[in-house]
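Subject: mismatched residue count in predicted assembly?

I count 628 residues in my input, but I want to confirm that the predicted structure covers every chain. Input:
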Amino acid sequence: MTGTAVPAAPSGDVRQRVAIEVAPGTGAEAARRFFANRLAVIGLVVALTIVVVAVLAEVLAPYPRDFADFSQVLQYPSPAHPLGTDAVGRDFLSRVLHGARTSMLVGLLTPLLSALIGIPLGAWAGWHGGKFDFVFLRAVEITTAIPGYMLAILLVTIWGGGLELLIFYFVIVGWVGFGRLARAQFVALKPREYILSARSLGASDIRLMVRHILPNAAGPMVVVLVIAIPEAIFSEAGLSVLGLGVKNPIPSWGKMIAEGAPYAATYWYLMVIPTILIAVTMLAFTFVGDGLRDALDPHSQQPRTGLLKRGGMLMARKR
Amino acid sequence: MLIYIFRRMATLLLSIAAVSVIVFALMHSVPGGPFTYEKPLPQAALDNIARKYGLDRPVYEQYLKWVVAMLQGDFGIPYQSPTETVTQVILRAWPVTLVVSGISIVIAFGMGMFLGVVAALRQNSLIDNIVTFGATLGMAVPNYIIGYLLVTVLVIRLGLLPTGGWGEPKHLLMPVIAYSLGPMALVARITRASLLEVMPSEYVRLARARGIPGRTIIRRYIMKNAAIPLITILLPLTTGMLTGSIFVESIFSVPGIGRFFTTSALVRDYPMIMALAMLVAVLWGIMYLVSDVLYALIDPRVGLAGDSR
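Triage response: the counts match. Full output below for your records.
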């Protein structure tokens, strides 16, 4: 991790503590560490730019996303079409800009929805234990018995592709990671003294979970949330490359790669531009995620295991 | 220990059974089927097809028949090529995947460890920065992106290689590069990190003080301990690669298991997809069983009584 300011650990016992809880008041300290990390800041700037482009796609794009002019098929870049046109005469720049919207929709909604489902389930399982916990663990086990990408492709085979369904499939695979993390945190934090003392003051279960445990468990959850963004972008683009992803007329960078491939001998940029955009977007969010992890948990020196998951895409399993 | 292994095997069987029910239920929840065409076939023909593939029987009977047949190694007849069995197709495709992934694994671990050691021994030098940054890139960029960039440069711009195909050594080059870069980056990064963790430790300093030559220290004292994190990723990484990369194989038309998964998904070839999904689930299950048992053997602190998850 180049360029990361890692303060020396004061003592062995602090090392262990920080792994789970972020002491109150370290927000500013974490922010300072994040902004001292050059790669993370660059990543953040690029990522925010892409988000803005995605939001403003309609305003920025010179043409509608699916306006096809059959007299203008496969044009080289020109003032009218800054990136040329594709095989059915659609303005490529407009497609690229709208593709950012698809990427961001999948990339941001998948982790958010997964977290919204996984964290409450995992928290409840970790807090109460018992039957609910048992069922929760079996559900996690079964979901992870098939690699995530396979489950996603199975579901595409059965219920078809499309943007909304794709996000739904990714959430089916993705909630497990959040659920497991939340469960582990709640199991670890529940027996703490401060929880006991809050309880003795008459705090209700819900209050204990939301006001006392959740804030202390938030750090790792935020990191997992951000690291899940490039995973989701990767999955959408990958399935779309294979023709199993987003459907027409919605443009997707992955689909554009596949559409451009047959013409790549002459119009190489049709394939290369979306390829590079996917790479840049994923890198940007990965840098932000790595930076956040280093900032929130400066003592973890482990390289991220993202690739293991990705080796077969969304393989939500971390031991 | 034996009890622990049996317990894990029992849970493995249970979760595989659960997977089989889910896979089967999903496949039968499908609206339409492989024989639903826009111009419908005559009813008599549809009935005949249904009878041939056993689609006219009750669902639970189809499930049991499927499970029993699977246990005997019979996965049915693929809809996309009715002249062979699924087992034949898999036996034909898997060796192809094994060749690509086998070479890729060897390169990924060999090169990855080499780069990781070089980077760690010259920490913060130019080489270290290049390796570290390259590893970050390699881990973040998906293999299909690497694949398409390779095609653009090597095939389209330079015209050095054919786009895809299978049978000659030159067909291996691009899939192996695209397939091995990511794992190589991961291995390099883990090697570097664990070397840096081990190098400043007391016993290494002691070995230095005793005058043991540097090379021996690296080999006997540092590498030995730094290898533990590598061993822990070896198993899942290998399993993941052996089950094929749908992307790399599809891009380069490598007739391996991953490509069959995609084509089967595109044409809704149920027997093929179900067989592949079950096979992969079983492989991963065995991998987790083996690695759990290995952990328990290596590290006596791993609790055998309760499932740590």
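The mean pLDDT of chain B is 80. Marking this ticket as 'not a bug'.
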